[in-house]
Amino acid sequence: VAEYFDSLPYVPTWLAQLLAAGIACFLIINLVAVGALVFIWMERKVSARIQDRLGPTRVGGGFGWLQTLADGLKLITKEDLAPGNADKLLFRFAPYISFAASYAAYIALPFASGWAAQLLNTSVFFILAVLGLEVFGVILGGYASGSKWSLFGGMRAASQVVSFEVPLALCALIPTMVAGTMNLSTIGEMQRGLFTNWFIFHDPFMFIIFFVFFTCVLASVNRAPFDLPEAESELVAGFLTEYSGLRWSFFFMAEYGSMFLVSGLATILFFGGWNGPIPLFDILGWHYDPLAPTFSWLWWQGAIANTAGVVNFIFKSVLFVTLMMWVRWTLPRLRIDQVMTTCWKYCVPIGCICFVGVTTWQVLQLGSINDIAPSRLPGEVREHWTDAPRFTPVAAESAEPPHHVTALEKRSGGGL
Amino acid sequence: VIGDSLLMAAINWHSVFFFLFAAIACFFGAAVLFSANVVRMAFYLVISLAATSGLFFLAGSEFLGAMQIMIYVGGTLVLLIFGVMLTAQEAFVNMKTRGGEWVLGLIVGASLLLLLVSTAANVRAWREPHPELVKYKQSVDKAEDDARDAISYEERQAAWDGVHQPEFKPHERTTAQMGFAFTGVRVDSEEAANATLRRGQSGYLLAFQAVGMHLLIVLVGAAYLSRTKRFGAARARAVSTYQERSRTRGKLVSAWIVIGIVLNLVLAVATIAGQASFQEDYPELLIDPPSWLFPVVSLLFLANVLLLAVVWGWQRWGIIALWIIPIAQATLLATNGLDPRVAAGLAVALLIPVAVLTALVSIGRPTAWSQMD
């Protein structure tokens, strides 16, 4: 994008860069904000249907399309209250921290092959790290409210999220290990082709670990049945007790933002990312090429293929968001000790076992559904972590192979 | 390029962002210093650390940047806030710094700053970029320019392939490199031209294992400490005994402590007195000892006396420190010329009485250990 703006007359390079960054920011912030609008409406409808009700039916037509907008208007007109006991500065700031953390994690999330606000080599790690910051706003909000309900809610949220970060990282590590890279864009590209190439079909352990991952994700974004930090009916809304109006809705936007984010993460790590079940555009031979000249036929092919990829990606992620809603309105809320038991006595051990299982599967190179129809496309990189990168020794100096290659061969029994 | 944008084109944007992040980090670092409220301090610290991670991202160290967020901003500060919230009493929520503390803090901080600045100025590699990196960067820049200028797609592809032909691209797959370095292979130094640059190929396997073991021990310790029920009951009993002031010390323990005090006093004197004759009798065992060695060892025996008094006064840390002193003495002697085998034997000989003391305080009912503070 920056290159395109740069090529226009009367647009200096710095402005082109700025415009490109602005477009990325605009797209993502709209995805988060509009996404939250749609998801809140969806939450109402889904919960209503599950409980045999109709849900919103009046605002903006038969399906209550504009219900969230009406809610938003109501929230904006509310008075911006801060309790007398509160630490005013932190109380005002906490919602922004939560929202900024959720929003910043989108920087590294690719929506299609090579289409991310910033392609990071370590995007999996970055997203997990930044997502963990969201709880910081929750804790600060809970503390700064100057109310015991809020403080306890904040503490519950902190202990829950900090605990679940451990199995979450463990679960995200496993597909990362299979891919051999932490770059989400590359991980998605590796699952190109038929749906049999998705990592969830890599081996049985991988299949199990997805469900653990989803459980941990539910807990780390404070969704039911792990929504203790804000349990309205039992715990007086937790850390949100003293919040009202727009600040309250910032927390909500952050929650829905990270819901979509973790769904996107699950999509890329396990369900092929932006690759559809049947590789229509691969059959046509269209694929995104970052080097194609702007507005050439090749560029258009790539753009169309990637747009379809974005649609695919958003569709899959929304499916996971819907699944989260389904879970919320079906399962009862857990007690805090049950939440901790789920984390430490189930998720972590299962994660460890699956980690060992997937590693063994790879070392023994057992059969995998992924091998049924492997994709062989131009530019495709299928890495295997046991395939050590081979380096040509500095030829002028030594004729024998460099010492680390022999060392590696010895260690792996000559399999390299 | 139109006129006014010449100025903008001349700006090094990398530096601009560097100064932006650096300014944020410094400003909020100072805010931590000047704020009196503990929770606000933590909040400012978060912002300062996050800006530091921005610096890492700017330098292209994405892994390090994400690590900074994960560990410092995420982990440590959540824990810090836990600590603050759970422990902060009224007196500590707002802290006032007294004049003397300011002076001490300024001295410590200024010396640390001086040390860091002088160190940073002395590392030659930090003053100029690595020549091979410069060469690589230039080739990439040229290829990118060529690719941009090229008219046809094939020409672009060719220009690009020219750079990316080597299988190993320094700017990609840094995580793979790090993984190999942790398992004992430094792939980045393999390509270096001469033997000096290829040093350190063996990677960080030992350090990695050591850190792993350390973390495992920390985890086990955390799990042990959080077993509040049984542990808490023993503590409660001990506390109640303490409150009743009816602590009973077994006769054996008392005797052993008294013997220990006398023995250590004798040893302290004997070390000084026997120095000359020992060096005469066994010249091959102790080679060229510094003059301070024997007085220091003697002082450590006197420290033992103090620690035994501490144990007598129902303090647990006395026993733990008693275990450390013989090891320190043996280490001192071994590193200053004593035959290591003799030093090891000495350490064992001196540790046996400590082991006996530890055993004595952990028998009987109630044990002396459980009554200690």
Your description of this structure?
The complex is a heterodimer of chains A (416) and B (373). With 416 residues, chain A is mostly helical. Chain A contains 15 helices and no strands. In chain A, helix 4 packs antiparallel against helix 5 (123-131), helix 4 packs antiparallel against helix 6 and helix 6 packs antiparallel against helix 7. By secondary structure, chain B is mainly α. In chain B, 76% of the residues lie in helices and 0% in strands. Chain B has helices at residues 5-10, 13-34, 38-58, 62-87, 90-93, 99-122, 124-127, 131-149, 153-164, 174-182, 187-190, 205-225, 228-244, 251-273, 275-281, 293-312, 316-335, 340-361, 368-371. The longest helix of chain B has 26 residues, at 62-87. Mean pLDDT of chain B is 77; it is low at 164-171. Chains A and B meet through helix 2, helix 4, helix 5, helix 6 and helix 7 of A and helix 1, helix 3, helix 4, helix 9 and helix 10 of B.
How big a fraction of the residues of chain B is strand? under 5%
Largest sheet of chain A: none
* Biggest chain contact: A-B, 53 and 50 residues
| Helix run count of chain A | 15
Report the uncertain regions of chain A.
377-416
Q: Give the terminus-to-terminus CA distance of chain A.
A: 42 Å
What's the pLDDT, averaged over the residues of chain B?
A: 77
Structure classification of chain B: mainly alpha
SSE pattern of chain A, N- to C-terminal: HHHHHHHHHHHHHHH
Oligomeric state of this protein: heterodimer
Helical content of chain A stands at 55-70%
Q: What would you call the shape of chain B?
A: extended
Q: Sheet with the most strands of chain B? A: none
The total count of helices of chain B amounts to 19
Order of helices and strands of chain B: HHHHHHHHHHHHHHHHHHH
